[in-house]
Amino acid sequence: MHQSVAKLLLSSLITLLSYGPVWAQEKAPSDLIRKFRALRDTSTWRQVAQVPLRFPVHHPQGMVRVGDDFILSSVEVLDRSAGKGVGHLFKFDATGKLLADVKLGEGPKYHPGGIDYDGQHIWVPVAEYRPNSSSVVYKVHPESLKVVEVFRFDDHLGGIVHNTDAHSLHGISWGSRNYYDWKLNAQGQVLAANQSPDQLRVPNPSYYIDYQDCHYAGSHLMLCGGLKSYRQGNNLFRLGGLDLVDLTTHQPVHQVPVPLWAHSGRPMTQNPFWLENTAEGLRAYFVPDDGEVATLYVYEVLVK
Fold first, then answer.
1. How far apart are CA 263 and CA 111, in angstroms?
2. Over the stretch 116-156, which tens digit does the pLDDT of each residue have?
């Protein structure tokens, strides 16, 4: 990339970031929900920036924005068949520069999933890299990056959100085929943490995409991004989308496809995403690609 183009993209992104994170604004969640419900399959997404990430991202999973920085969970696979790998929680700035790398997990539990930020802590599930396995859930302070184990669970948790209105946690299984809910006490401890998956499991009624990354949006709703691969003969089509899910009923209340693809052919909602308000609509951040070289894509959509 030419230096002048890179400077222009960086200047554009810093300007975009000046709006501030959606969660820092008292009325932003309700605005976010209203605007998201106004999205349609015909809505036009416009790319406004793309920022090369200047570190190996491995296999990204979830992302949140805290202030002007981003937190990205990722899986580094060393030997999947042997259950060997490293779970990462990367912190990077608006220029794509790596600020910190926190290692998460233990033994075969090295697969961080989708993450959530509740204004105080980042919630991260780390599981074995296979369905019907086991997980450990952590909360991480965004500034000190201190890691605290919260609880363990006998299934693969591919994502988790903190419903700050109900003071509860909500997880999704491998492929988001099932939901799990846990209440928290006043000290932030999980009530009935020893309950089995069979006691808590609620089937997901939606099948058009598998959720990869979810974030609490307020009003007992969470926003989830994901994708699904569809095959017709030898042709494979990958569709990405965003869903608004009611945490009290586990039902999607608004679903929109996101017809955006990276140069690699991956849907923008392949894994990590972050959505926030702008003056005229919504802004989305995506990191769909794996490996040594990846890009933070920034898109905006107008919402009346």
1. 26
2. 999 999 999 999 999 999 999 999 999 999 999 999 999 99
The length of the chain is 304
CB atoms within 10 A of CB 72: 27
Check if the beta carbon of residue 168 is closer than 8 Å to that of residue 161: no
Q: Which two tokens stand for residue 121?
A: 């802590």
The CATH class of 3-302 is: mainly beta
Which sequence spans correspond to the domains of the chain?
Answer: 3-302
State the pTM of this model. 0.90
Q: What is the largest CA-CA distance in the chain?
A: 58
Residue from 13, 47, 107 nearest 259 by CA:
47
